[in-house]
Write a structure and sequence with these properties.
Shape: elongated
Mean pLDDT: 78
Order of helices and strands: HHHHHHHHH
Oligomer: single chain
CATH class of the domain at 83-100 and 144-240: Mainly Alpha
Strand content: under 5%
CATH architecture of the domain at 83-100 and 144-240: Up-down Bundle
Number of helices: 9
Length: 241
C-alpha cells in the first residue's frame, strides 16, 4: 500500500528498495534494514507533499549568525547633489562607446585625461611619455594608455580591486585615484568576475557615503564622485533597483 500512488513510481520519488509488510513499532528499534525502510515508508506516506513554513523575518534577523556581516545600505544624499537622469543616460552611452571603440584612439596622456575628467594633465610621466609601472601610482603617477593596454585581463581586474580597497581609510576621492578608477573601469573585461563585481559594489558604497556625508572638497570632487558612482551603479549594474 506504500506504493499505491502512481506518482511515486517516477522521478525522484521512485523507491530505490522495495519492502513488504507493515512496520512493527512495538518491537523497539529496527532490527534490520528492511524494518527501518518499512518505518521510513510508513512515515513518508503520512507527510504532506508540500509543506509551507511560516517564517518570521524579524526572528531570523535576530538569530543571524556572525558569519554574515551586517552590510549597511547604499547611502542616500541630498537630491541637489545628484546628477540629472539625462546626463547619466548620456554618460553611460559615451562610456560604452569608449570601451567598445574609442579607447585605442587615445595615443597621448593629455587627451586621455581631458576625455576622462576634462582637465589638462600635470607632468608626472617619464621622459618617454609613459608610466614605467602602474604601481607607481603611490607617487602621483597617472594611468597611461599604453600601460593599460599592455596589461592582461587578470591584471586589470586585480589592479581595479586594489584601487578600490585603497579607499578604505580615505575620507575623500583624490583626482589621481579617480583617474585610475575611471581608466581601469574602461578597460576591465566583462562580465565581471565575482570578486571584481563585489569590489565595484563596494566602490559604489564608498563613493556614495563620501557624497552623502558632504566630505568632498568642492564641486570638482562632487563631479568625480558622480562619475564613478554612475559607472559602478548604472554601467556595471550595482545600483539598488
Amino acid at each position: 500500500e506504500y506504493y499505491s500512488d502512481s506518482s511515486e513510481g517516477e522521478g525522484l520519488r521512485k523507491p530505490a528498495l522495495y519492502v513488504e509488510g507493515e512496520p512493527d513499532f512495538d518491537s523497539g528499534p529496527p532490527q534490520d534494514g528492511f524494518e527501518f525502510l518499512r518505518r521510513v515508508r510508513w512515515e513518508e506516506a503520512r507527510c504532506e507533499r508540500v509543506k509551507v513554513a511560516a517564517v518570521s523575518a524579524s526572528k531570523l534577523c535576530c538569530e543571524q549568525t556572525a558569519y554574515m556581516p551586517d552590510i549597511p545600505p547604499i547611502a542616500h544624499c541630498d537630491p541637489e547633489l545628484l546628477p540629472l537622469r539625462s546626463w547619466e543616460a548620456e554618460f553611460v552611452s559615451d562610456f560604452s562607446k569608449l570601451r567598445l571603440k574609442k579607447l585605442p584612439h587615445f595615443r597621448d596622456r593629455d587627451a586621455w585625461r581631458v576625455y576622462c575628467f576634462g582637465t589638462e594633465s600635470r607632468s608626472s610621466d617619464n621622459d618617454n611619455g609613459e608610466t614605467s609601472d602602474y604601481e607607481q601610482e603611490h607617487t602621483g603617477q597617472l594611468p597611461s594608455l599604453s600601460t593599460l593596454l599592455s596589461m592582461d585581463e587578470v591584471s586589470r581586474a586585480t589592479l581595479l580591486r586594489h584601487h578600490i580597497s585603497w579607499l578604505d581609510d580615505l575620507e575623500n576621492l583624490a583626482e589621481e585615484r579617480a583617474l585610475w578608477l575611471y581608466a581601469l573601469s574602461a578597460v576591465v573585461d566583462e562580465p565581471l568576475d565575482l570578486d571584481t563585481s563585489a569590489a565595484v559594489r563596494e566602490l559604489l558604497r564608498k563613493c556614495a557615503l563620501i557624497r552623502a556625508s558632504r566630505n568632498f572638497r568642492g564641486e570638482r570632487e562632487l563631479e568625480m564622485l558622480n562619475i564613478i558612482i554612475t559607472i559602478a551603479g548604472n554601467y556595471f549594474g550595482q545600483a539598488d533597483r
